[in-house]
Task: structure prediction
Amino acid sequence: MKTDPSNSIIEIGYKGFPLDSYGKSVADFLAKRPNIFTSGFQFPLMVIKHDALTNNIDRMSRFCKSVGAELAPHVKTTMSPYIAQLQIDAGAFAVTVASLWQAEIFRKFGFKRIIIGNEVLDQYAIAKIAELNKSKAVEIIFYVDSIEGLEIIKKFTPSDGIQNLFIEVGTVNGRGGVRSLELVKEIAIGIHSDPRLNLRGVTGFEGAVPNISRTKDGENLVIEFCGRIVNAAQLAFEYKSANKFIISAGGSAYFDIVATELNKFNQEKILLLRSGGYVTHDSKYYEDLYPFKS
Result:
């Protein structure tokens, strides 16, 4: 059942809201058109300009369309169902989160396709995800980057459960992901051999590659890493599920390079970017890295 954010009841967890707003619905509170400076808001308070927010969402949506990509923005940036819904309304394919806990928040608000951008190894989370996928009420995809991780996923997935998996590709001195292409194939075969598991695609995060930058040498490191993802996709494609194969990467800085390089994968695919910071982080640091200005 979808929960409307405007019907949520304001309580102490709503940072910065006026004390006399507690117990009211968001809709009722906003109906009185509260003023940031005179309505009792508790400072410090972060405020987002709605026109800037929607401009960023629209700009990224148009960029994705221009390069033939889908978008699954990482919504840990805001943890705001309202903002995430604006992104979905602008054409986003899914939302990306960091954990099952975050996924459950967005599921509560009616989001139907959720990517957990990490390997899930907790036995209770594995079982819960398998149950949710079986229900068809939501589709959850998460990462695997080792045979050991795959065995844990198999062990705690119920016999009638369903898991949707991305093989994550990593880099030397990176923070996660498969380091060797041989292991990519081994994991793909292991997924394909289990009827409970669906290989949905191959993914990676170029933002974790050491020494990348908007210099020629730094961009070449991003290109090289994307090439590893493409090579991994070529190996894994044979073992994919019945769904269209997904090849994915894309932090909030080098998504233009990612789109160009991953489009070199010449099989039928969904090219999926996962940039999330663009929605609000359009100030100096990212402005110097973005392929377009805010």
User: Anything to note?
Assistant: The chain is about 35% helix and 15% strand. The domain at 50-287 is CATH 3.20.20.10 (TIM Barrel). The chain has a mean pLDDT of 95.
